[in-house]
């Protein structure tokens, strides 16, 4: 079986966490809580770390098992299979939504004359190639991309520091904590680190460097970037502009102009975003493929890569007719749907495992007496 | 019409590219699963090109989870 180093897993986690959140979270938070969007991002991070804490507990209790294997082990063959297939459908639908979002962004912002299906299929070809080469290949690619992403992000943040106006974040907590908590909870469902649990068995743990530790550190770094970017959009664009632009970070980066020669670097933002979304779609699709392979007891997921890639590219055209319906789905339905898979089910697994072990130990105690 | 034919042609290409190796390696189960996925993809694609959406999971998700999401939002706002 192919393996990746915990460091590569950590980098995949960072890039996965940043993913699409970088572009859409600031706008969604500002719509909900205006200038307290940065506080909303902080609570997003808090909720995400809570979810990751649950995943770490599951990884420690079931070492070497993926999420669908944990479901089947805990819930039995039939109920476990149902839950496994629900997770597989979640991963594949997530891949469809990510591809759709990427395609819509490129179509509206960069290539308006290019048919959107062409963008979906072109990107899917790259993803299929990445998956065909396996987790080691795209793990190494992520390792190569990571310093570039950090460098570009650092450059953008430094260039924007001079545009900050601290008064734009005041007054803090004007509407109370309840709307901020709710927006933080809703936005925490857009990072979906649960997919990375499917890749955890592929990590070759080395002493203290384990998949669990890499997941925690990677998530923390990704969320810090998210908080920083949200804070910058509020301090520079203000809450009104952040809420009313569909892609405020893109608009933010367009403002950079130093000495009349260091400008028009929004392409750096697009480059970062391409890399992070590529990693996110590859990992999500791989999670779905691993799930199908394990649930159906197949020898390998490679024969399924092309058909599933074709299915995802086609469904990216079908699911939403336009960006407005996509954002409406993200606002109204995604939160509760995703929360079921990223928190409710994993916590249920934990509770079932605790109860099973407790009952098992009681029974053992009675038998020994 | 041209789009439907292209969709079927792509699916056939995928089948031709992958299935012989799978048959030689005796991966019959993988062939069955890959075929089912390809058929679903082609039917969905041809349906979409003829402006007929056969199955869109978004409808099920919206009808099931939108009320739950609203209930949670109301809880926070109460």
From TrEMBL, chain A:
Keywords: Germination, Membrane, Transmembrane, Transmembrane helix, Transport
Lipid bilayer topology: Multi-pass membrane protein
Subcellular localization(s) per the UniProt record: Membrane
Highest rank taxon of the organism: Bacteria
Entry GO terms, CC: membrane
Pfam families: Spore_permease
Keyword Transport: yes
Keyword Membrane recorded: yes
GO terms, biological process: spore germination
InterPro entries per record: Spore_GerAB (IPR004761)
TM region positions: 9-31, 37-58, 78-103, 115-135, 144-164, 215-241, 261-283, 304-322, 334-355
Main location: membrane
NCBIfam families in UniProt: 2A0309
Similarity section: Belongs to the amino acid-polyamine-organocation (APC) superfamily. Spore germination protein (SGP) (TC 2.A.3.9) family.
Name of the protein in question: Germination protein
Native source species: Paenibacillus montaniterrae
Organism lineage: Bacteria, Bacillati, Bacillota, Bacilli, Bacillales
């Amino acid at each position: 079986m192919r393996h990746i180093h915990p460091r590569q897993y950590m980098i995949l986690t960072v890039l996965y966490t940043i993913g699409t959140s970088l572009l859409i979270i600031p706008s969604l938070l500002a719509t909900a809580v205006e200038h307290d969007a940065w506080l909303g991002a902080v609570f997003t991070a808090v909720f995400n770390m809570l979810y990751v804490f649950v995943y770490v507990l599951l990884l420690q209790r079931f070492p070497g098992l993926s999420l669908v294997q944990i479901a089947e082990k805990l819930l039995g063959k039939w109920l476990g299979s149902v839950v496994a297939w629900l997770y597989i459908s979640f991963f594949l639908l997530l891949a469809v939504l990510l591809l759709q979002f990427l395609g819509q962004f490129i179509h509206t912002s960069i290539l308006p004359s290019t048919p959107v299906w062409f963008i979906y299929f072109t990107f899917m070809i790259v993803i299929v190639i990445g998956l065909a080469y396996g987790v080691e290949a795209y793990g190494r690619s992520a390792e190569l991309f990571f310093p570039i992403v950090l460098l570009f992000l650092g450059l953008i943040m430094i260039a924007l520091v001079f545009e900050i106006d601290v008064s734009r974040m005041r007054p803090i907590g004007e509407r109370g904590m309840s709307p901020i908590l709710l927006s933080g909870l809703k936005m925490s469902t857009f990072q979906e680190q649960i997919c990375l649990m499917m890749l955890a068995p592929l990590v070759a743990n080395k002493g203290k460097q384990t998949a669990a530790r890499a997941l925690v550190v990677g998530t923390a770094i990704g969320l810090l970037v998210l908080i920083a970017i949200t804070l910058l959009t509020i301090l520079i664009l203000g809450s009104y502009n952040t809420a009313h632009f569909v892609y405020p970070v893109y608009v933010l980066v367009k403002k950079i102009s130093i000495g009349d020669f260091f400008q028009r670097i929004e392409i750096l933002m697009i480059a970062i975003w391409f890399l992070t979304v590529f990693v996110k779609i590859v990992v999500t699709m791989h999670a779905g493929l691993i799930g199908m392979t394990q649930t159906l007891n197949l020898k390998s997921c490679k024969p399924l890569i092309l058909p599933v890639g074709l299915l995802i590219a086609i469904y990216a055209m079908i699911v939403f007719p336009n960006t407005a319906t996509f954002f409406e789905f993200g606002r109204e339905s995604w939160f509760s749907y995703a929360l079921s898979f990223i928190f409710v089910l994993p916590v249920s697994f934990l509770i079932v495992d605790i109860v099973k072990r407790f009952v098992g130990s009681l029974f053992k105690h009675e038998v020994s007496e | 019409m041209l789009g439907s034919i292209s969709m079927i042609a792509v699916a056939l290409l995928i089948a031709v590219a992958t299935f012989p190796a799978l048959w030689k390696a005796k991966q019959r189960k993988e062939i069955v699963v890959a075929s089912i996925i390809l058929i679903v993809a082609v039917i969905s694609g041809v349906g979409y090109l003829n402006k007929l959406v056969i199955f869109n999971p978004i409808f099920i998700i919206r009808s099931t989870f939108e009320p739950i999401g609203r209930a949670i939002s109301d809880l926070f706002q109460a």
